[in-house]
Amino acid sequence: MNLRQLQQCTKNILLCFNNSRAIQIREISNTKCLRRSLEPVLEQNKSSSKEVLTHFEFHGQWPAEEQQLFIKDLRLHTDFITNEEETKLLEEIEPYMKRLHYEYDHWDDAIHGFRETERKQWYPHNRAVLERVRQTAFDGAIMPYVHILDLAAEGVIKPHVDSTRYCGNTIAGISLLSDCVMRLVRVDERKYLQGKAVEAPEVASTSAQNTADANDAYRNRPETTLENNFYVDVLLRRRSLYIMSHSSRYNFTHEILGNDVSQFQGQRVKKDRRISIICRNDP
């Protein structure tokens, strides 16, 4: 190899190195830009940037302001309770839950493969956990009865919005026994706003529509479409706490995906039997 060939070879090696370095810098820059765009809203709520980046999968074209508002109003705390605390909660609720049968024909058609109850009195160590939920998720008091929802491995929760007649602007749930994926889909505000059904301007009313009260149902089930072209999948880890309030509470349906479609960032998430302990504030 002569001198000219050696110089050209060296130049090519340096060029490849620089291109590779530029790609790495660009990827790092993109990640930093995403973090910077989320910093203002993450600073205002208790979800860390790591939890948002690793547990929220946004789909479609989200308006920037709406995405930031959603992150502010949907908070997630992984490992909110310890293994021991999970065991203590299960020890208290399992004896009663085992006496119930799983139901597959719910009166509002929102849940299949479930059993549920409410509980007011708790052992002191479990009451301490619920008090921690109250301090973390709510500004004031919570409703005295805590909702316990036991979902079978093959069970699903269909898209719905909890009625404002039965709970206020915040819902907080602890996930026991299993990971799962919760999907939140933006609903058409012309038809559904702040938990109350409203008629789209171009749709003529009927007598049935005029007499129907959407809030008679504990869980309102507006027609869910992807016409807004954006939704989000949230990975709810076992022993995590999710806090759904304001815009995420009213403007999105939420559902627990069944095992036939349950995946997150391209990886299957197998949902086994799952119990959620749900606290709410007054309407």
UniProtKB/TrEMBL annotation:
GO molecular function list: dioxygenase activity
UniProtKB keywords: Dioxygenase, Oxidoreductase
Needed cofactors: Fe(2+)
Keyword field contains Chaperone: no
InterPro entries: AlkB-like_sf, ALKBH7-like
GO biological process annotation, one example: fatty acid metabolic process
Taxonomy, superkingdom: Eukaryota
Any single Gene Ontology cellular-component annotation: mitochondrial matrix
Protein name (record): Alpha-ketoglutarate-dependent dioxygenase alkB-like protein 7
